[in-house]
Design brief:
This protein is of the alpha/beta class. An eight-stranded mixed β-sheet has the order 3-4-2-5-11-1-12-13, with helices on both faces. It is globular, with a radius of gyration of 23 Å. The two termini are 25 Å apart.
Length: 396
């Protein structure tokens, strides 16, 4: 049973994990997985009752992943990144099966990923009897496993059972869910797990999970009563005015909207709105700003004085922006249709509103609100803005 520690950002989830590791019996072994390298350093410095080692390519014949496996063989306490842990293969699973580790994942991982491959290439592999698709939409490699080609990554994913065919047009890599069965205990530190891709991935693979919260550094039964949304409501000043007209329709500011309007006057209007809000309405100092949009369209709407204040919309688990008090969230988040189709094909229904709200909250909580300081925010999408207002009113 996975223990989902679901508490609001800044409530002390990481402190709980560090305390637990410091107080655990010397016989217990941990693997701590975090999104960022600076958090790797934090764990190494904060856990004083045992030594955590970070995988190092110098000790793995030039490959960090090989050193990771070697550390597991030797039963060491390990701290590493999401990126490295996501490379888990059958050999790693076998090593873990006999080592009795406790796994702690700080923030959810990217457990699915769309493989960039043309539909014609997929058809070539099918017609050449290199792959086949079973009744579960899983892609099986039926050619010689020693077959060496530009499709080696496809071969490796398929042989590991981690590749699926979606909507007759795309491939999706799926993190091996069986890895969660080989640990003594698994903890995931996050917020609003019900709005996370990893939650739906667990539902698809029948991975059992139970919710908990933290309070004063202790694990407690799940509750929302310590979130104090009324205080948050007083601290978050959401812009309400004419600059919101551009996002009036439900789908405005989605990826497809940007794609359609990238050369239109709408893009110039959004750029002017963003500049007007930051520089004229709030009159924010450059150092106080953080803003976001879809990365591929960033250059279309950035402006003088805040170009370098861009922060990716899907960032998590960092305190690098806690001094920012003037925000602009210029996207309308919908799940990619291929990802949505992947879950639908496996009879799992995704709540698009919760996905959107959770991602937006994670971004907002990188700012000064994390320290209970007031912030101003421009959210031109009416859908996203109403999700935040609903959250602050206790609707989610």
């Amino acid at each position: 049973m996975v223990k989902v520690v679901d508490s609001i950002m800044g409530s002390g989830k990481t402190q709980f994990a560090i305390k637990m590791m410091n107080e655990a019996s010397y016989l217990k072994k941990f693997i701590y997985v975090t999104p960022f390298l600076n958090e790797v350093t934090r764990v190494k410095e904060s856990v004083t009752t045992r030594t955590f080692i970070e995988p190092d390519p110098q000790h793995g014949e030039g490959r960090k992943y090989e050193h990771f496996k070697r550390l597991i063989k030797n039963g060491k306490n390990i701290v590493t990144t999401h990126a490295l842990f996501s490379r888990a293969d059958d050999e790693l699973l076998e090593l873990l099966r006999y080592e009795n580790y406790t796994l702690i994942i700080d923030e959810v991982m990217d457990v699915i990923d769309i493989i960039k491959m043309k539909r014609n290439d997929i058809q070539i592999l099918l017609d050449s009897n290199v792959i086949k698709i079973n009744d579960n939409k899983q892609i099986e490699w039926i050619s010689d496993s020693k077959f060496d080609s530009r499709y080696n990554d496809i071969k490796d994913y398929a042989l590991a059972g981690n590749l699926f065919f979606v909507r007759d047009s795309a491939m999706i890599w799926n993190f091996p869910a069986k890895i969660f069965d080989v640990f003594d205990e698994v903890y995931i530190l996050t917020y609003m797990f019900e709005g996370q891709i990893q939650r739906y991935y667990y539902d698809m693979h029948n991975v059992k999970y139970q919710y908990y919260s933290v309070n004063n550094g202790e694990l407690i039964p799940f509750t929302r009563k310590y979130e104090n949304r009324e205080q948050l409501k007083q601290l978050i000043n959401i812009y309400d005015g004419k600059l919101n007209d551009i996002g009036e329709r439900k789908n405005n500011l989605s990826v497809s909207w940007f794609k359609r309007n990238k050369k239109s006057l709408k893009m110039i209007e959004l750029k002017n709105n963003l500049y007007n809000y930051l520089r004229n309405i709030i009159k924010a100092d450059s150092e106080d700003i953080m803003w976001t949009t879809w990365k591929e369209y960033k250059n279309k709407i950035q402006g003088n004085g805040f170009t370098k204040k861009f922060v990716a919309w899907n960032i998590r688990a960092t305190n690098d922006y806690i001094d920012k008090n003037t925000l602009a969230f210029c996207i309308n988040r919908f799940l990619n249709p291929i990802e949505d189709g992947f879950f639908i094909d496996h009879n799992v229904e995704v709540n698009q509103e919760m996905i959107a709200l959770t991602d937006m909250l994670q971004w907002i909580f990188r700012s000064a609100i994390r320290q209970n300081k007031p912030i101003n925010i421009y959210i031109p999408s009416s859908r996203m803005r109403n999700l935040l207002i609903g959250y602050l009113n206790g609707d989610y």
